[in-house]
Amino acid sequence: MALLSRDQITAVDDRLWEDVPVPEWGGDVRILGLSGTARNAYETSLVQLGPTGSVQRVRLENATARLVALTLVGEDFQRLYTDKEVAELGAKNGAVLTRLHQVAQRLSGLGKKAVEDAEGNSAADPSGSSISV
User: Fold this and answer.
1) Which of 50, 76, 127, 130 has the fewest C-beta atoms under 10 angstroms from its C-beta?
2) Please, are residues 73 and 80 in contact by the beta-carbon 8 Å criterion?
3) Strand 72-73 to strand 16-22: parallel, antiparallel, or no bridges (unpaired)?
4) C-alpha span between 122 and 112 (Å, rounded)
5) Is residue 72, in this structure, part of any structural domain at all?
6) pLDDT digits (tens), the chain, 133 positions
């Protein structure tokens, strides 16, 4: 297999997304995996560093709703909730948010299972994930 050039890599639309049924809300929603930059920003938002650069505390306030808000998009792949609307989304059913959070984690390469999958330590997930082109 030939090595890819920078232009070829840049040209590829490798976003992962999945439409998820949410019967509690009466339909489906679309979860779009985070880009590498967005994932790093989310992970950074979860910790507060002290003056020496070490982790001072973990910030889990609305962490589930924040990730869902970052990844919940419409048909046009634009976010449905802004950062200022996270609390509004966080007021929704916790079980639904947890399900959507798990999909967002998987599509974004977050969490223990994503790491195991990337390392090849667990079976592939037969999901309806799509790559948009």
Assistant:
1) 76
2) yes
3) unpaired
4) 11
5) yes
6) 899 999 999 999 999 999 999 999 999 999 999 999 999 999 999 988 888 888 888 889 999 999 999 999 999 999 999 999 999 999 999 999 999 999 999 999 997 655 455 455 444 444 444 444 3
Domain presence at residue 67: yes
Report the alpha-carbon distance of residue 102 to residue 61 in Å, rounded. 17
Element (H, E) at 115: helix 111-119
Q: In whole angstroms, what is the distance from residue 68 CA to residue 65 CA?
A: 5
Say which residues have a Cβ less than 8 Å from residue 107's Cβ, sequence separation at least 6. Answer: 16, 17, 18, 31, 32, 33, 34, 71, 129
Q: Is residue 11 a part of any domain in this protein? A: no
CA–CA distance, 8 with 24 (Å, rounded to integer): 42
Residue 4 covered by a domain? no
pTM of the model as a whole: 0.79
φ, ψ for residue 65 (rounded to 5)? -65, -35
Q: Which domain holds residue 91?
A: 20-33+62-119
